[in-house]
C-alpha cells in the first residue's frame, strides 16, 4: 500500500466521520442530568467553616507558639483589644 493510497483512505475515513457527526447532531440529544454528591449550598457552608477553623488555628499557633502566650487566650476579648491597641498605636 502506498502512502498516497493510505492518505486517500484516511481522507475517506475523515469524511465518513464528519457525515456520522452530522447524522448524530440531527438526533435530539437526551439531556444528561448531573446529580451532585455534595450540593452547592453545602459546599459553600463547608468552605466557610474551613475558613473559620483555619483562622482560629492560625491565631492559636501565632499567639500560642510564636508569641509565647497561651493558645486558649485567643478566645478572650481582652486579648483582642490589646492586639487592636498595638496595631492602631501611632
Task: Please sum up the structure shown.
InterPro entries: RNApol_su_b/EpuA (IPR024596). The chain has helices spanning 3-26, 40-66, 77-88. With 90 residues, the protein is mainly α.
Query: Share of helix among residues?
Result: over 70%
Total strands: the figure is 0
Which runs of at least 5 residues are low in confidence (pLDDT < 50)?
Answer: none
| H/E topology pattern | HHH
Q: What is the count of helical runs?
A: 3
In terms of quaternary structure, what is this? single chain
Which of globular, elongated, flat, extended, rod-shaped describes the shape?
A: elongated
Count of domains: 1
Average pLDDT score: 81
Largest sheet: none
Distance between the termini: 87 Å
Q: What Rg, in angstroms, do the CA atoms define?
A: 32 Å
Approximate strand percentage: under 5%
The chain-level structural class is mainly alpha
Describe the model.
This protein has helices at 3-26, 40-66, 77-88. The chain has 90 residues and is mainly alpha-helical. It has one domain. It is elongated and about 85 Å long. 70% of the residues lie in helices and 0% in strands. It is built from three helices and no strands.
